[in-house]
Write a structure and sequence with these properties.
heterodimer; A: mainly beta; four-stranded antiparallel beta sheet; 2 helices; 31 strands; globular; B: mainly alpha; 8 helices; about 80% helix
């Protein structure tokens, strides 16, 4: 066991009352030691969860690893999560112990992406926001300029983790019609569709005269326009809507799962997709058989092998891929699990 | 048919009624938040007391052994730096001893009952300084509110009841005050109460981020996981005390 003096003391808090500060050194010593004792127990991923109107972070067994004391939090990204407390709008960033490592001062605070977070600072005097980057390593802010709409979009995109690019060709609208351009902005497929989805698995859903079909990268129809709607392909299957019911087709247009669902939640991921019957959602396998029968108001995507679900009691919990309720329906709101590293 | 005589309220009277209702709501909210703050303070004080008694005293013992070792080394070494290190270690041991055996360690274990909470809520609603009717009244209310906070932290229901009995302010109106003056007084009280609400929220947030609150959260998290973090901490410090004792004894043999 290391001597107490070798332990790095945790930073003392700002402004505790009631004479607690006088003993803070001795308490900080215990906390530093407690942390070193339980270091192995620090979870590798956490999910946001709301209880009694406040947000904290839970681990996979469903316990609060970071106490629910925050008014607002974001998901962990590169070891930090944005958070605000005390009824204040401004956000700062907390570490995996729930301690502010960057004090709340930002009007908008984005998630860290490749070592940088986009943040904004509001100026009361001119009622405008400046923006800049917060550096993950140094935790220093560098001003870039005054805000425009693009900044807020970039913050939202980082928050939703929307920076994963789609496949090469992207749908672009010209006049009334959609076509596809490559990364250099050259038209590869001329504008000719009423609507166009992203390419995935070398196929893209497109709309012609109010009916959806599927094209390949040479603009040849592999599924003729016939459906009310077709979504993007994933794991060789795409959801379609026909006569207001949802089913799935394969890459050559065969209906492998009949149109018998009332709604569609999310595409196939590790052999499972989310569909709805009535107003409740469940999870099916590639044969269309329910792995989790429809019983939830909402089913999130699986992250770290758990999916957040909202029960008919409005509360949120988590299920595993077998449909087992591993964290009871108990939270007022919840986010998906994310790595904290 | 006799017609009923109805006196319509003047706009000032209507406004006064609205403001009285708003004041009542703010009062209830403020009392609730004062209770939340008092409750959290008490919980932290109780937890701090437990920490000092179970772990703090062990740190004090460890630091005492470290100081003895440093003093013995200084005696063997005879150099000035060794003497300085010994003095520093002794000062550290004294500070730790004072903290571990000080007032904080004497905080009694108590769980506030529903009756105690209800009583405190009532006291806060009735005697909060924000609703004083003058400078003298405000002074009296401030003194009583401080006593109420102390009584709550001790779990002393009788004292809270005495405070409530002692303050009998009668109605909210001041005789001969007039609608205009009452309206102004109520608006000021509402404004003051809102400032107090913000101050309470700030203090709560600071307390929630304090080392003791975070340590309490760590202990609570470990407890839910079936682990007793206090016991682990105590065992870890005891182990180091044993090592320090061993080192001291071996140095003593060397010195003799």
């Amino acid at each position: 066991m290391a001597d107490g003096k070798d332990l790095v003391p945790l930073p003392l808090p700002g402004g505790p009352q009631l004479g607690l500060r006088t003993n803070a050194e001795l308490i900080a010593r215990g906390r530093a030691e407690a942390y070193s004792l339980t270091l192995q127990a620090v979870p590798s991923c956490l999910a946001r969860a709301k209880q009694n109107g406040k947000w904290g972070f839970i681990d996979k067994p469903g316990r609060f690893a970071i106490a629910p004391i925050f008014d607002c939090v974001g998901d962990f990204c590169e070891g930090l999560a944005r958070a605000s407390v005390g009824g204040k709008y401004e956000s700062g960033y907390i570490d995996k112990l729930g301690k502010f490592v960057v004090e709340p001062r930002f009007h908008e605070a984005g998630s860290f992406v490749e070592g940088l977070a986009t943040v904004t600072i509001y100026h009361d005097d001119c009622e405008e926001c400046e923006w800049g980057y917060l550096n993950r390593k140094t935790l220093k802010y560098a001003r870039e300029g005054w805000c425009d709409d693009g900044i807020y979009e970039s913050i939202r995109a980082a928050e939703k983790n929307e920076h994963s690019p789609h496949e090469g060709l992207r749908p672009v609208c010209s006049g009334w019609d959609y076509g596809y351009q490559d990364q250099n902005g050259r038209w590869v497929i001329e504008p000719q569709f009423g609507m166009a989805g992203h390419f995935s698995e070398s196929l893209a859903p497109v709309r012609v005269n109010d009916l959806w079909g599927v094209i390949d990268e040479n603009a040849n129809f592999v599924v003729e326009p016939y459906y009310q709607m077709i979504y993007e392909f994933s794991e060789g299957l795409a959801a379609f809507r026909l006569d207001d019911k949802y089913g799935f087709i394969d890459t050559i247009g065969r209906r492998t799962i009949d149109a018998r669902f009332d709604d569609y939640g999310w595409q196939f991921d590790q052999g499972q997709a989310c569909v709805g019957i009535g107003c409740l959602y469940g999870i099916i396998d590639r044969l269309g058989k329910f792995v989790t029968i429809p019983q939830f108001q909402k089913v999130g995507l699986f992250r770290k092998d758990l999916a957040r679900i909202q029960g008919t009691n409005e509360k949120w919990g988590f299920i595993d891929r077998k449909g087992n309720l591993v964290i009871d329906l108990q939270f007022e709101d919840a986010g998906s699990f994310h790595s904290i590293g | 048919m006799a017609s009923e005589i109805v006196r319509h309220l003047t706009p000032e009277e209507e406004e006064l009624l609205r403001k009285r209702e708003e004041l009542a709501a703010v009062r209830a909210n403020l009392a609730e938040r004062e209770l939340e703050l008092a409750d959290f303070r008490s919980q932290l004080a109780v937890f701090q007391g437990r920490y000092m008694r179970q772990v703090g005293v062990l740190y004090a013992e460890l630091d005492d052994w470290q100081a003895r070792i440093a003093e013995l080394k200084a005696k063997l070494d005879g150099s000035e730096p060794a003497s300085e290190r010994a003095a520093q270690a002794r000062a550290q041991a004294r500070t730790t001893h004072e903290a571990a055996h000080g007032e904080a360690s004497k905080a009694p274990d108590f769980q506030p009952s529903a009756d105690l909470k209800a009583l405190f809520r009532e006291v806060a609603k009735r005697i909060h300084p924000d609703f004083a009717k003058g400078a003298e009244d405000e002074q009296r209310r401030t003194r009583l509110m401080a006593h109420a906070n102390e009584a709550y932290s001790r779990g002393d229901t009788e004292a809270l009841q005495r405070i409530l009995d002692e303050y009998r302010d009668g109605s909210d109106s001041i005789p001969g005050e007039g609608i205009g003056a009452e309206l102004i007084r109520i608006i000021r009280q509402i404004s003051q109460a809102k400032k107090s609400l913000a101050a309470i929220q700030k203090e709560l947030s600071e307390l929630q981020q304090s080392e003791i609150a975070l340590l309490r959260q760590d202990v609570e998290t470990a407890r839910k996981d079936g682990r007793n973090l206090f016991e682990k901490l105590a065992a870890s410090v005891r182990e180091r005390i044993a090592q320090a004792k061993g080192e001291y004894e071996s140095l003593s043999r060397e010195a003799n």
